[in-house]
What we know:
- By secondary structure, this protein is of the alpha/beta class.
- The chain has a single domain (13-179, 272-392), classed as FAD/NAD(P)-binding domain (3-Layer(bba) Sandwich), CATH 3.50.50.60.
- 38% of the residues lie in helices and 24% in strands.
- The protein has 13 helices and 19 strands.
- It has helices at residues 4-12, 29-40, 65-73, 77-82, 111-124, 167-172, 240-244, 249-254, 300-317, 322-351, 356-368, 371-381, 384-392, and strands spanning 22-25, 45-48, 60-63, 89-94, 97-103, 107-110, 129-130, 135-139, 144-147, 152-154, 157-160, 180-191, 198-203, 206-212, 218-225, 235-237, 264-271, 279-280, 283-285.
- The strands form 4 sheets. It has an 8-stranded mixed sheet, covered by helices on one side.
- Strand 1 (22-25), helix 2 and strand 2 form a beta-alpha-beta unit.
- The protein binds flavin-adenine dinucleotide.
- Flavin-adenine dinucleotide binds at residues 25-31, 48-51, 61-62, 134-135, 161-163, 167, 186, 188, 221, 267, 269, 287-289, 295, 298-302, 304.
Amino acid sequence: xxxxxxxxxxxxxxxxxxxxxxxxxxxxxxxxxxxxxxxxxxxxxxxxxxxxxxxxxxxxxxxxxxxxxxxxxxxxxxxxxxxxxxxxxxxxxxxxxxxxxxxxxxxxxxxxxxxxxxxxxxxxxxxxxxxxxxxxxxxxxxxxxxxxxxxxxxxxxxxxxxxxxxxxxxxxxxxxxxxxxxxxxxxxxxxxxxxxxxxxxxxxxxxxxxxxxxxxxxxxxxxxxxxxxxxxxxxxxxxxxxxxxxxxxxxxxxxxxxxxxxxxxxxxxxxxxxxxxxxxxxxxxxxxxxxxxxxxxxxxxxxxxxxxxxxxxxxxxxxxxxxxxxxxxxxxxxxxxxxxxxxxxxxxxxxxxxxxxxxxxxxxxxxxxxxxxxxxxxxxxxxxxxxxxxxxx
Length: 393
Ligand SMILES: Cc1cc2nc3c(=O)[nH]c(=O)nc-3n(C[C@H](O)[C@H](O)[C@H](O)COP(=O)(O)OP(=O)(O)OC[C@H]3O[C@@H](n4cnc5c(N)ncnc54)[C@H](O)[C@@H]3O)c2cc1C
């Protein structure tokens, strides 16, 4: 415990220019979405981002219609569509034979393109963003933020949008903070090949997803079950030679330009056991900082969009009552994110089956029933605008 006089002195080192602002930690998908909504509603806010710019390693992202509904409300959907892939079919393949195909209405794009439209929208609304501000500590009771560049601020409220390795969570929820390795690792790359549809290759203990990110490039993602925690760094470069040992020949031949691709990244997929906390005192958690999920239903980014949109609108409605916004945010979001968290884990198991009998049953269900449609409909039909309108009108 610090002596009282020392505490007063430290307190005085905190600059007050943002003391009525919502401080958004992290300029990722959830942070920028929240920033855009708050600026539109004229709620003072500021974003702090640890990097010097928004940089995204070669990777794609697919956005189902629930995420697109938010992008439409943010007025960036049409612009994003112009530079993205708009596949109309997803084909499911096992051992090089098609099992079934599904009509879809996804946008598949590069993360860079998504971040660019969000950042430009925020900046065009005179949104303030401080790059090179890495949050290192929070005094949650006094709403004080400390950064690695020795700048310190007191703020009105803290929106934790700082992703899976959230320092916000670590600072205030010490024992619940640590993400753990999910048992899956993922290889990702952007390759210079044209493809119009989404392809899912299911195989024993692996699956590969490919989709167009624009008119000339595509995203390649290969996921594996792997218990070798030692090789699972957060994110590192991988080599084609290593990938070759993990995938069947027909896939490597189909995506032949992987061979000469230098930009092949290997990720350990991290999660938390369960979704537990969406807010605490003066801090609210959004996106991966609140609920990191395995990526097997392609919903992490979509949930980050929904979180930012819904929390932003609640704050705008209950301007002087942040507690009420937090309570409603939890009521509206908790069950949904928990359900998708659970279903994504289940989907991971289904995608990586090894037992031939179970594989046969899975493939038959996919081929002869509309199970994929049933599993995805509720998730994709979610309309954040309707949800918020029902609450605030
Ligand atoms: C392999 C893989 C494939 C995926 N595919 C899809 C997909 O197809 N569709 C989909 O919807 N989702 C997908 N996801 C999930 C999606 O990428 C995430 O859920 C989404 O990026 C989360 O957004 P966020 O805003 O919460 O966090 P992030 O996008 O991680 O942003 C966090 C931001 O906070 C900043 N930050 C971190 N720490 C600090 C700090 N201390 N101080 C200041 N700033 C900080 C970071 O630099 C970053 O800018 C996938 C994930 C993986 C791993």
